Amino acid sequence: MTQTVSYAHHFRTLPGHVYSPTGAGNEPESIFIPYTLQQLTFTLAGADPITAGVYEYRFVGPAGAFTVSVTQVAVTPTAASVIVAAALNADPTASGLYTWTSAAGVVTGVAKSGLTSIALPTTTTNAPTTNTAAISVAAAVNTMRLGLWYVYASTTYVGGAVTNTPRGAWTVTNVSGSTTVEQLRGVVARSPLQTTLGTFTDNTAPDAYRSGQFGFGLNRGRVCTVVSPESGILTPASALYVVKAVGTNSIVGAVTSLADGGNTLRVDNTTPGRARVLDDEESFAFGAYSGRCVPLIVNQTI
Predict the structure, then answer these.
(1) Mean pLDDT of the chain
(2) What is the reported pTM?
(3) How far apart are CA 205 and CA 216, in angstroms?
(4) CA nearest to 100, candidates 88, 113, 112
């Protein structure tokens, strides 16, 4: 008999491990990891009013090439962009792939699916008016690494939930340079009742949830949290900072003992307390992947 190796769970120091008891001191929540949607722009410029004539927008979509032709009269670039957006929204193929809006001479298309990523469209124009296409945001698959802090990416929640969490899942994203202490929500965690989540398929990279998945976040409780490797040894007496941008510390969303100006947020001296070190940190090694973790109490109420 051949036994299949599983990396779904390792041991107590694994990042994101939740060991707070069930009850009032433990508040998990479902989180949703979104795709970064591709965005296209078309900018009308060079003349005001624009030059009257036919303007073409040529795409190579998943089902093949298609063209949307827009007949313009001599109007302002802003008015012309409204006409272009309306034409693209009226086209079944263009509107099937993107939602089109306009503002100040710029037409923006936001992909309706995280799986949509087409090549840069081409355009025709009528000189001296210019009609410039651009990919303003590239499509991307995001990951939320377990054991790191997260923030909300939306003020609304989506359907679906992880077992033993309240109904509905909040769209979340990684901590960034603009994050404030008040915006820190909790730590990306692993549900003890689930065994196949995210990228838990090897022992060479950190476990993470991926775009399109519902994950498990710990809003309040005790959780094993990643320590940035530059940090001093963390103990219950340590000052505690969350890394929000790379500088002195290298892992965004991890915790550290090293203050780094605007690149870190102190979380152990807030009222109410956002987080504090519960016990001495530990290191773990599993296959080709190793790291440092420390148990925290996050968003304590006492």
Answers:
(1) 88
(2) 0.79
(3) 19
(4) 88
- The position carrying tokens 């969303």 is 253
Identify the DSSP state of 228.
-
**Alpha-carbon distance values, 13 to 122, 153, 176, 193 (Å):** 52, 28, 25, 17
- What residues have CB less than 8 Å from 105, skipping those under 6 apart? 43, 44, 45, 76, 77, 78, 80, 81
- Per-residue pLDDT of 215-237, as tens digits, reads 899 999 999 999 999 999 999 99
CA–CA gap between residue 295 and residue 224 (Å, rounded):
4
In the three-class reduction of DSSP (H, G, I as helix; E, B as strand; rest coil), residue 82 is classed as helix
Give DSSP secondary structure letters for 85-99: HHHHHHSHHHHHHEE
pLDDT tens across 23-37, in order?
Answer: 667 888 999 999 999
As a whole number of angstroms, the distance between CA 95 and CA 187 comes to: 38
Low-confidence ranges of the chain (pLDDT < 50): 1-11, 195-196, 302
- In this prediction, residue 4 carries a pLDDT of 44
Q: Quick one: pLDDT at residue 7?
A: 44
The pLDDT, as a whole number, for residue 33 is 92
pLDDT of residue 90: 98
Q: Residue 106: which residues within 8 A CB-CB, separation 6 or more? A: 41, 42, 43, 44, 81
Give residue 87's identity as a one-letter amino acid code.
A
Tell me, what's the pLDDT at 32?
A: 92
Report the half-sphere exposure of 297 (CA within 13 A, side-chain side): 14
Dihedral of the alpha carbons of 29, 35, 36, 37, in degrees to the nearest 10: -130
Strands, E assignment, 126-236:
130-137, 143-145, 149-158, 169-174, 186-189, 208-210, 214-226
Structural domains of the chain sorted by starting position, each given as residue range(s) with its CATH number in brackets? 27-35+142-298 (no CATH), 39-137 (2.60.40.4390)
- Rounded to whole angstroms, the Cα distance separating 298 from 225 reads 10
Residue with tokens 């996050």: 298
